[in-house]
Amino acid sequence: MSFKHRDFDHNSADFRKDPAAVYRELRAAGVGQSEHYGGFWVVPTYETVQAVSHDIETYSPADGTMLPGVLDRPLLPMESDPPLHSEYRRMLAKRFSPKTIREWIPLIREAAQALLKDVLANEPHDFSLGYAKLLPTAVICQMLGIEFKAELQEWVEDVVYRRISDRDATDRAIAKIHNLFRDLLPGRRANPRDDLISLVLQSEIDGKPLDDETVIDFCFFLLIAGLDNTNFTIRALLQQLAIDHTLRQRLVDDPSLIDAAVEEALRYFSPVIALGRTARNDTSLSGCPVHQGDKALMLFGCANRDPAEFEEPDKFDIDRFPNRHVAFGVGPHRCLGSNLARVEIAVAIEEVLKVLPDFELAGEVDIRWDDLGPLLIKPRTG
Ligand code: HEM
Questions:
Q1: Structural contact between residues 143 and 195, judged by C-beta atoms closer than 8 angstroms
Q2: What average pLDDT does the segment 109-125 reach?
Q3: Index of the ligand 1 atom closest to the CA of residue 53
Q4: Which CATH number, 3.40.1350.10, 1.10.630.10, 1.10.8.420, 3.30.565.10, labels domain 3-379?
Q5: Domain boundaries, the chain
Q6: What is the pTM of this model?
Q7: Prior bond to 307 cis, omega within 30?
Q8: Using an 8 Å Cβ cutoff, are 377 and 124 in contact?
Q9: Which of 120-124, 170-174, 349-353 has the lowest mean pLDDT?
Q10: Pocket of ligand 1 (CB under 6 A)
Q11: Residue 298 CA: which ligand 1 atom is closest?
């Protein structure tokens, strides 16, 4: 076991400052064990992330995918095993299909334009706090059928951004979000609407509806599942475009390239750094003895920079083809919201380029996964 593995902590500030450098060392060393959070196997390469993701008989997400854990109830449908997991996916699949998500584009565009109006009213423009962060929340609130309000935004931020730094705030926010859904259920059961809450409430498994607390677990995860990651990708891609003027001009001249830029941003920035599994039986991974009950942490970001799969992996290249990144995971638990996320990021970028085709950074930017610092941008003058 290498020194790097033993000390590796995916939540540490040092790692998050320059993940690419750590990734290179972890990949070179292969699978190994970290001593943090009670010990876990580090799964760093494209090949091993694929192997663990696909082997759902051995590696289960049901005991929690976050290290450290976020709450003592499951994030559904993610933290469940077959056969229930397949039923859960079936319940939701149609709502997140490419066709259904395409129908949301006008609303997403409208929300982006409304937020942009406020952002552009002040200079320099902060595209992080008032735009990248708010757009995904506004959209999922509409899909769930709940009101988008400042208080809710504060709660989701306490859950998704402060779970390491302020555990008490996270716990309080989780309770408030659970209560919000708990209070909504009787009304929505009596008067169902065309929203995700009603869909989950009306779903049946083996002929029986889900109990209220399970419905709340679904609503909770559907609310938070696509917030920090989508926000981070919009923000990181805008920063990239503020620095790389040639690339930005290419996208302005040919907006059909925006989708390829979104794919490359997902690979290059890999907003979901890592997710965990628990071994259901003794096995081996890349020659390492994995025992029943062991945790294994798949490093999606590290796999997405693996030279065994990607040529010049540390280069941001929207012409990369194929681009088989694992930013949304792979296998049976692959992101259910990937179509939504892609559309949100693409529309967000497209709308900025329409009103501000030539821009640059207006200050130092520190792209980080775990905070929400501003992304200050100004029109380019020279
Ligand atoms: C850039 C944005 C996003 C990224 C990078 C991302 C990434 C991921 C990843 C890596 C997983 C895999 C979990 C695993 O293998 O255990 C996942 C699962 C999931 N994501 Fe996303 N996600 C994004 C946006 C969204 C959005 C907008 C939603 C909408 C609600 C969403 C809903 C889900 C759900 C429900 C699952 C669980 C799927 C299952 O276990 O069957 N995600 N996501």
A1: yes
A2: 95
A3: 15
A4: 1.10.630.10
A5: 3-379
A6: 0.97
A7: no
A8: yes
A9: 120-124
A10: 53, 61, 65, 77-78, 89, 140, 222, 225-226, 229-230, 233, 271-272, 275, 300, 327-329, 333, 335-337, 340-341
A11: 15
